[in-house]
Amino acid sequence: MANPSIGTVICPICGDLADVRKDKNGKLYYSGEAGLITPRTPSGQKWMREHMVSDESSDAKAQGNDDFDTQVDEHETTANEPSFLERLANWGADDE
Known about the structure:
The chain is α+β, with helices and mostly antiparallel strands and 96 residues long. The chain has one domain. It is 35% helix and 23% strand. It has helices spanning 42-51, 55-62, 67-76, 84-89; strands spanning 5-10, 17-22, 28-32, 35-37, 53-54. 14% of the residues are buried. The model is unreliable at 67-75 (pLDDT under 50).
């Protein structure tokens, strides 16, 4: 049985919205079109915490918490950024 989702994150590989879960050791990972991705380094775990939109944020919005809007604004722009593969495919290309 899969671990319950604790939030969402924009996948840097595919650009899709992926479910964030926590494994039995407390490490964050996400499940999306690219599969199950587990950043194992401390910097990878930090990236997950910084870019994850927690499911608790949804509950906070339902209760009228103003902090929710600030958290969502930080993550809205990431969906418009090119994915990792798009940046890699355009590596070395002229920006003209």
